[in-house]
Structures are given as structure tokens and as C-alpha cells.
Design brief:
Blueprint lengths: L8 H7 L7 H7 L4 H7 L5 H17 L10 H10 L9 H6 L1 H15 L6 H16 L4 H14 L7 H26 L2 H10 L11 H5 L8 H28 L3 H13 L2 H4 L5 H48 L1 H30 L5 H14 L6 H17 L4 H23 L9 H12 L15 H6 L9 H17 L21 H14 L8 H24 L6 E3 L5 E3 L10 H8 L4 E2 H12 L19 H12 L4 H7 L5 H11 L2 H17 L14 E10 L8 E2 L1 H4 L3 E9 L5 E8 L8 H7 L7 E3 L7 H9 L3 E2 L12 E2 L3 H6 L8 E2 L2 H6 L1 H12 L5 H10 L5 H23 L1 H24 L12 H31 L4 H12 L9 E2 L18 H6 L6
Length: 1022
Amino acid sequence: MPRLVVFDKDEIKAFDSPPVFLTEHRDKYFSLSEKLLLLIKKITSPTNKICLIIQWGYFRATGRFFSPKYFRKSDIAYVADLFDISLSEINIDHYYNKRKTSREHEKSILLAMKFTAFDENTKNILYENIKRLVEKQVQPREIIYHIASQLHQQKIEIPGYYTFVENITLVYNQFEDNLLNIINRQITPDQITKLNLLVDAKEESGYKSLLTEWKTINQSMKVRDIQENIELFKKIKSYFNAFLPLLNRINLSAQACEYYATWVKKAKISQIKQFPKQTKTYLHLIAFIQYQFYFWQDTLIDILLKSVQATRNKAVKKILSLEHDNRKERLALIEQVVDEQDKLENLVFDITKIVNAGNISDTDKITEIKQLLYKNDVIQNNSEQEKSISKSQLLRKLMNEDSYYDCIEGLSIKLQRRVTNIIKHIEFNHSTSDTVLIEAINYFKTNDGNIGNDSPINFMDAKQQKVVYDENNEIKISLYKAFLFISIANGIKSCHLNLQYSYRYKAIQDYLISQDSWNKNKDGLLDAAGLKQFRDVDIVLNQLKLKINERYHHVNQRINNNENSYVSFDQEGHFTVTTPKLEKANNESLITLFSETGSVPIIKILRDIDVVTQFTKVFKQFSTKNHKLKPSVEIIIAGIMAHGHNIGINKIGNISVGINSNTLRQTVNWFFIAKNMKIANNKIIALINRLSLSRIFKYNSKITHTSSDGRKVNVAVDSLLANYSFKYFGKDMGVSIYVFIDDNQSLFYSTVISASEREAAYVIDGLLHNDVVKSTIHSTDTHGFTESVFAAAHFIGISFAPRFKKLSTQRIYGFSSPQTYKNNGFKILPSRTINTNLIRAHWDDILRFMVTIKLKETTASQLFKRLSSYAKDHPLYKAIKEFGRIVKTQFILTYIDDVDLRQRMEQQLNRVELSNKFSKAVFFANNQEFQYGEKGEQEIVTACKVLIQNAIVLWNYLYLSQILATNANPHERGIVLNSIKWSSMMSWQHINMQGEYDFTKHNKSTNVFDMDKILSLKVDAA
């Protein structure tokens, strides 16, 4: 079978070529260490000596050996100069032809650096790692980068591109062949009949097939739409149950299921029937059934949760309204009661006085008391008594603390219409769920939602168990159901109630690497994840203890010596840290430079960037077959603009010149997928990183400072992901676009999340996502911070540096008691001692958790969301947080002491905030509101917007680089560089994003930039 095409020719060349070193790289990697000097000691041949050193430097940097014919001339010249050897004495061709010598050198380098050669044994490691990722349908490009990184961490020589591709091709074919063989052997005639019925429809007729009906789920919260969803779900469920034995046998991963199902969702019925092998059709349809069943269950749970929350919100709102309406009446009644109480107290006083009088007979006392009672109107007729009782009852009602439950009961019927049938048909996991709640759910299902006095009430709290009965000791049915639905929603959110078949609502242990696999291959998994150095908890904690104690000592010593003038203390010993402001970015000077270009159409910007990056070539069709559809560059750019500018596919097709609307729709359907968007963006980012001018924004060439932030965006259509937030959306609903940016101002990751979600859960996703941007330090605002994120960032080797609203409110910790630190004369003191016993007790689970993330078994966001749902109950969550407190303390102490760090954080966070303003300028149409309701669609739209932003940033870099490269005047270059340094590449005032879209004017592949000059430009770091 033919080899998979993963990289294009330029990418293959780049992958199999030696790294491009700058001067500081050569100083580092070609440095004559003791080990290297021992290797070259006995070598007399100048060629052999130079070639060994070059191969040493390349291997040190990449973990790979390269053919001598690809050695870079600049590196040869640098090393030759180190030994004062003339270039004429060096014969690379001779060294290349003497393969025996070069192989001996490679063996010596491997031995000296303690690396393992890529041989038959390590080929098996490569094969098994590829197999694991292929089973999860990880894309070949990601497999290559991911495993290359793993091999380097494991100190195994990294092979060349074609070795990777041959193995990936082999595993992909074996994987699918195995699935097809199982289906061939196991599928039954009844199942084949069901699959045929699934696609039974003629597309030219008005009749929809079951398959077509199941492709999309209505995002509306209207009762009618919910019930229609449930009816469709019941059909999906019946199919799923019919195929469950076969699904268990083929055991598709969630990722593989999604891959096959997505193809089915994009395809027409006629395309599904065109597979040459019918078994392949069955595979796609079976995967579609499983994926849709899981997806629809999760979506119905979303509807349930939103319905319950809406009911609770309405109840609270109603209570507040009643409180306001009844306030005057309640106050009047209270005044009457107080007045009557005063009268009663006076009466009692007067009666007591009469009773105690010694000069009056008992008969006279009785007479006087009777007269007193009549005088005070205490003896009243029956109607007055009834009126008094009525008033008392009314007051109790107005003061009733159970009025919230009355409101819940009143809203119950509406809630029942939305969620009753959802609960009846959802499959909960009995083994990982609360048994008391499961008992109540089973009763509800068994009795078809009917409630009697024998209904279980143990799932309720004591107060609920009391108020659920009326005065006749009968269960209030509406209130009972409301309590049940609320308890189910609480159970799902807290992970005490989990689904059997789900992507988002399973128990935490169902997401982790299985306990059996972990027990059998813990060392291998730690090695593969690059976490072997964390295996021994005592070594890890001891190292951190030394660092923390040293940090406390250093920080306090500088404070005591008045060497840190930015820290001050109040009388109670609380400290405050101030940070001097950096000069703000000023784009005025850049605007002047850009104004010389005139108003540049966005089509031209994208076309120019495509000429230098070829990003449109990575838009491959989402298909397992070769199709004739090969869209032009203009069609792809039109699709990017339609989504990225929020114009819409139909509208841009209608208003543009040179675009066929039908071709555009097909292209967007089949080519605009997450994988393609990621690769296209990475192409642009990779070129930005190659430009010398991008170094001007770096504090240190070895450090990449990244940041992330969210922007709230309204959603104009029904969307289960969207939430209400009066602060951000008024009376409308919206979501949050969460983006990541590096110090070169490249946007390297984006996702769309619920506006009510905390962004911290997604921080690790963004940091592990990208193969082009490797973050060293990452900053967020407070909403991006949790102590568990500190822990995870530490494991993946990234310094987490969030900006706290109030640093003084953040607790810092120590390995000893606070008193111990105080006795050492410290001013900055820990508020609590680290619970190392808790960390030790759950260290194995922490490692399993992190290995699951690093090996891409499950996304970090999914794990963090489920784990944090347990709140204080889950020991793993508490242990990860406790470990994170150590890392957080280390950061805070550094933050207090390092004013440069604080300034760099502010600068980087300012960049991400500017990117949000930039985003609004790009995403301008349709009132800047999403026109798509599903998360996947919103993320494709966001990726297109980000691609346009990155293209503008790169175009700005290239334009300014060309100005510098063609200007020979050092003084003028210095002025321009200074302007750039204190500005931002996120400048868009010179770009015309609106107006006429004529794609016929910009369809020539002319390079407006002199890339040779631009790439040869040398700019010193800031």
C-alpha cells in the first residue's frame, strides 16, 4: 500500500535537515565540553574532527544524526575557526563516503550522551507508541512530533521522516484491517438490515433517512424541541443497544469513533454507499451510531442541567420579587403585632397590680379585672377572633422560610415537561454513582414517573424530607419531582452521579489510564510521558523543600537589607508589592510606516501570506477516499473570510466576485476541519518564529513567554453552550473565546467554552496543544489560575505565572511551621504547613493523572473539570491542590523578589488583551455575534478568525523586515527598530477588511516580499 503523505516536500526537507543555528546556539551546542574533548583527542584528520563536532552539536540540539552532505556551511566555518583550521583542509564528501568512520562517530556520541541507538529494539517502542496513538485517531502529523519529543525525553535516537511515515502507514492499515475483519466475522443479518434502513432514503425525494435526522441535535430549550430530540434519541438508543455486542468487540476509542462519525455527518447518503468494501460502510455507520448515542446523551444532560438551573434561578427571582411586594404588608402586620404586644404587656401589668393590692377583697379584684379586660377589648366576638387568627396566619405566611420550596413546587410542572423523559431514557452508571440516588432514579423509571408515598426520599436532606409531605402526610408529587431533578443535576455536577455511555459525564477513573495498565507498565508509561524524574515522591519533595527554604531565606534577606524597595508592610505585618510601569505600546509610529502602503485589502494580505507559507495547501479533504474536489486558493481564502469576519458562507458567496457559492459550501464542509486549521495556523506561526525581527520582543532568546485570556461573545442562535450573563450579554446569551498568545504576538491556540466556566481548566490544553510554540512561562489573569494548574504546569515543565488581583489574599506555604520561619527573622511568612503526608499517600494517583494528560489519553480540561466537580470530597483533587500549593509558593516568592518578572508578566498580559481588541476588528459582521450554536462550529469560526489575525501579524512583520533589510542607513534603521520595539505587530488600521471582495484581482502568485533579504536580516534581541 502507498505511503501516507504527511508532510509536503519543504516540510520533509526541514524535518530531515540539521537545525538552523544562530550565534548563541553555536556557542552552546558546539562548546568543547570535557566529554567532547575526550572524543576528539585521538582524531588527527581535520575533516573527521570538524565533522564529529558538528554531528555532536546537531545531536545535542535535536537528538538526531544528519547526513554530512546536509551540514551547514556556516556551522562548518564556525567550528573550523574554533580550531584555526582552513576550510580548504576540510573534505565533507570524503567524510560522507567513509560511512564506517561516521558510524563510529555516531556510536561514540550516543555512548557519551547516554542515548540509545535507534535499532530493532527501539523500533518496537516506536511501533507501540504509534499504535497507541493511531487507535485514538491522532493525526499522523501530530504523531510524528509527539513521538519525536517522547523519544528525545527517553534518550532514544530519533529516526528520519520516512521511518516515521512507513510505520504510521503500516499501523493505520493494520488498525483498520483488524476492525473490518472483526465486523466481517461478527456482524449479524439483523444488524445489516438495520444499517441498510439507516441510510434508506433517496436524496432527491423529500424523505429524510434516519441517518440524516440523527446528524444534528436541536439546541433549543423549548419543550416541543426537547421532546423531538428525545424521540430521536430513543431511536438512536435502540440502534445502539442492537449493536452493543459488536461495539464491545471492536472497542473503538472515543477519538476513532469521532473520526468515522464526523465523516458520516459530512457525507451525503450516496457517498456513504460508494465504498468499494461494504464492510467499510458498516464500520463508518457503526462508529456513527456509537458516537451519536454518547453525544446525544451528553447533550440531553446539558439540557437537564440548564433546565434545573433555570428553575432554581426563577425560584430565587420569584422569592426576591415576593420579598419586595410583601414588604409593606409585612411591616404593617409586624407593627400591629408589636402594638398589640405592648397593650398586652400593659394589661398584664395592671392586672398584676390589682392582684397584688392588699386593701381590696378578692371579689372586688375580680370585678376590677373584668372591667379592665372589657376596657382593653380583650374579650371579643367570634368574628373578631377569626380575624385575629387570620392575621396571625397571614403573618406566618409572610415570614415563612419555606416560601422558596413553594416557588420550586409551583415551577415543577414546567421543569417536568423538559426533563422527565430525559431521566427515563438516560443510562446511568450504577457502579460509579451514589446508590441512594440511583435507587430513586430506578424507582422513577420503573414506575414511569409516577410518585407514591412509598417513593424513596433518602436522597433528600432533612429539611426537604420534612416539607415534601403535606398536612395529611401525603407526598407533594410536584415538589418531590422537583427535588429529585435538582438532586440528579447536583449529582451529575458533583460526579456523584455518572453516565454509563458518555464523553463528558463519566467518573474520573473512567478517564484515567486503566489501573491494570498502570500497575503492569508504570515505568514504561512514566518514561513515555517524560515524567520518570517524578517517580520517587521523597526525592521530588526534598528537592522542592530545599528550593522553597532557600527562596524564603533569599527573599527575606533582601527585604531585611532594604534591597527590595517595592515591598512594604503595614502594622499587622501584611505586605504589598508594587510594580513600576513599563512604557506602553504605542502604535502611532508604526501606523505612519504602514500608511505608506495605503489601504491594503484583506484578500491581498491573505494571498501574500499564502505565497510565502503555502498555508492553503494544508487544507486536505476530510475523507478516507480520494475525491475530485480540489478547491482553489481563492475558494479557501473566501471560506476563511466568511467565517473569520463572521460574514457567513452564503452571504460572502453572494457578494463576492470570482467565487462559486456551491463550491464554497462544499469546500467549507469537507476541508474546514480542526486539524487543517491548526496546521495552517502553525505554518504562519512557524515563519514568524524564523524571522529575526520577532526576537526584538523577547526578553531572553531561550525563554518563550505566553499568556491566555477569554473574550465574551454573544450567540445569536439557540446554543446549549451559551449562558446568560447580564454583565457581559445583557438579556442575551453568549460564550467565551479563550485564546493563547506568545511574545512574538502569534495566536497559537483557541477554544470556545461556556461563559460560566472557569478558564483555568483549559490552560494546560493550550500549553500542550502546539508543536510550533513551546512555552517556557505562561501568564493568565486570576480566572486562569487554580492551585491544580500550578501542579500540572510543574509536571509539564512550564513556569506558571498568573496575575493575582490581590496578592496579599493568596496563601503561601512552608515545609516547616510558620513559627519556625518567624524565628529566623523572616517578614514574608507561610500561613500554613504543607501536608506532605497527603501528597505521599496519593502520589501514585497524581502520576497516573499526569501521564494520562501527557500521553493524550484524555484532555487536561476534561480531567480537571470532572475532578474539580468532586470539590472537597475527592482525595486525588486535594492531593494535586496540595502539591500545587508548593509550586504556587515558589512562584509567589519569586514574584515578590523579581520586579523584571512582574513587568514582563504585565507586558505579556497586555498583549493578550490587545489581541481581544484585534479580534473585535476582525470579527466585525453580524453584530459580532456567533451565527452557529454548536461548539464545534463555533471553534472552526474562531480558528478562521485567529488565522486572519496571524496572517496580518506576519504580513506586518514581513513588511517592516523588508524596510529594515533594504535600508542601509544604521541611524534610520535604529529609529525604526525602536519604534517597533515599543509597538505591537497587532496593528490593523492599514487593513481594509470590508468593502468589495473581488477575488479575481488577487489571484496571481506574485511574491511581494524579498524573502531572501528578509530571512538574512539580523536583529538583536530586545
